[in-house]
Specification:
elongated, 434 Repressor (Amino-terminal Domain), six-stranded mixed β-sheet, 12 strands, single chain, six-stranded parallel β-sheet, Rossmann fold
């Protein structure tokens, strides 16, 4: 019995194959892929159907040589512990990959080499190798050295977090103060008059904005703000005779600390105390009771970043200002009850 030899490799479908199948010119196929607005709708539908039927995939390397686009965006991923990852940034990366993919781009993860304190070398390497069309930066500060270096190099970038006045306003951020103001209103609507805002003291601008937004709205509503103890021991806060009946945390992990402190003091979240968090990480849904938290619109953030970045890559007009997006308050049983009776 003769053993059959290996089958010859299947020839890749070409533009010419698509053109013959659709009964159009190769230029019409090219326009369908790269400038569909130039193609009559009936022709566009016929060519698109032929592309799908034949399984045609454009040669991205040839496209890159022709247009100069690498079809890849670099993402400077924050340093994280693989055994204790940041669930928020993991969700952001998922949204970023989807947003880039919707525009026909991949995402290349970058990070400084071990022992390096700055990302400049990582940025220089991908720019020199022409590996990416632009950069997405996260956890950006007003004086962010990564954004400043990208601006000096002239490589397009978009920042999750506000850049300072000396840098291009290619940023997208959350209105953190408006978010915690909504949390304050939510607690006031449930009859709480003594409230507190808890979180680690930090110079990070987004955390400072959350604290300021809650305090300002609480004052406007005539609520009594109970200051957290100087030593940061939440049990001390809950032992005071005039303890707050509602507490807002600047992130979900801080809210978890409140759950633990309440349990130690024999108090029940949702019955004796109302608690809100920030980020709406998966932790919020699995706490008992589930935690009311402010959800960041990660997909909207990622889409806005990719849109702003590709506008720079393609030489299109870019907005003169950054954009603020709103967080959404997700109400769960941790804050759904009315204020406890005195």
């Amino acid at each position: 019995m003769t053993t059959p030899g290996p089958r010859p490799a299947r020839r890749a479908t070409t533009v010419a194959d698509v053109a013959r199948a659709a009964g159009v010119s190769r230029q019409t196929v090219s326009n369908t892929l790269n400038a569909p607005q130039r193609v009559h709708p009936d022709t566009l539908a016929r060519v698109t159907a032929a592309i799908d039927r034949l399984g045609y995939r454009p040669d991205q390397s040839a496209r890159s040589l022709r247009t100069g686009e690498r079809r890849t965006l670099g993402y400077l991923a924050p340093v994280d512990d693989p055994h204790d990852p940041n669930p928020l940034m993991a969700g952001f990366l998922e949204a970023l990959v989807d947003a880039a993919g919707a525009e026909g781009h991949h995402v290349l993860l970058l990070r400084p080499a071990a022992g390096e304190q700055h990302a400049r070398a990582a940025i220089d390497a991908v720019v020199a190798a022409r590996q990416v069309d632009g950069l997405v930066l996260a956890d950006v500060l007003p004086d962010d050295a990564r954004a400043a270096h990208a601006a000096r190099l002239g490589i397009p970038f978009a920042a999750f977090g506000r850049t300072g006045p000396d840098l291009p306003p290619h940023w997208v951020d959350i209105d953190n103060a408006a978010a915690t103001a909504e949390a304050a209103r939510h607690l006031a609507e449930r009859g709480h008059r003594r409230v507190a805002f808890v979180g680690a003291p930090t110079p990070l601008p987004w955390l400072a904005a959350r604290r300021e937004g809650f305090h300002r709205e609480a004052a406007r509503l005539g609520l009594t703000l109970v200051p957290p103890p100087a030593d940061g021991d939440l049990r001390t806060l809950l032992r005071t005779p005039d303890r707050p009946t509602a507490l807002a945390a600047d992130n979900d992990l801080a809210a978890l600390d409140l759950y633990e402190a309440a349990r130690t003091e024999g108090l029940h979240i949702g019955r004796d105390l109302a608690v809100t968090g920030f980020h709406d990480t998966p932790l919020a849904r699995h706490l008992r009771p589930p935690l009311t938290s402010l959800r960041l619109p990660l997909r909207a953030i990622a889409t806005a970043l990719v849109t702003r970045l590709l506008a720079q890559v393609r030489g299109e007009p870019t907005p003169a200002e950054g954009v603020e997006l709103r967080a959404e308050l997700i109400v769960r049983p941790s804050s759904s009850l009315q204020s406890p009776r005195p």
